[in-house]
Amino acid sequence: MASRRPKTPAELARRITVNPKAVMLDVFQSIGGAEAMARWAKQPQNRGEFYKMFAKMVPKVVEGTGEGGAHLVKFVSAYAPSTEGDDRNVDESTGPDEDSTGE
Predict the structure, then answer these.
(1) pLDDT score recorded for residue 95
(2) DSSP-H helix ranges across 1-103
(3) Mean pLDDT along residues 2-8
(4) Which residues, at least 6 apart from 100, have a Cβ–Cβ distance to it below 8 Å?
């Protein structure tokens, strides 16, 4: 009996037996890593494509006012493990407060 195709992302995730990110990193290193990518990106016909990829990977910064009027900075990335981002209260005179990990 042939296996059926997964119908939902959850079904597909249960069938994946390798870490796709790890595989991509291995391939990236095997084809020359950052040096090869830099050579590719420096070619005029590839520069726009490189900047598109770069823009997707760079965290976006959202600023606002937190509790008690504190300056709130939130870093949001499509590649972050959670959608919560990285919230930090910033004192304009001293910089970021310690984050929740105590670093």
Answers:
(1) 42
(2) 9-15, 20-30, 33-42, 44-57
(3) 75
(4) none
Domain match, 70 and 52 both = no
Identify which has the larger pLDDT, 66 or 49: 49
Q: In what order do the strands lie in the sheet with 95-96?
A: 60-65, 71-76, 86-91, 95-96
Task: Evaluate if residue 31 carries a pLDDT over 50.
Answer: yes
Element (H, E) at 76: strand 71-76
At 36, is the pLDDT very low, low, confident or very high (cuts 50, 70, 90)? very high
Distance CA 51, CA 97 (A): 32
Beta-carbon contacts of residue 96 (< 8 Å; ≥ 6 apart): 73, 88, 89, 90
For residue 81, tell me if it sits in a domain: yes
- The dihedral over CA atoms of 50, 53, 55, 56, expressed in degrees to the nearest 10, equals 180
pTM: 0.46
Range of the domain at 90: 60-96
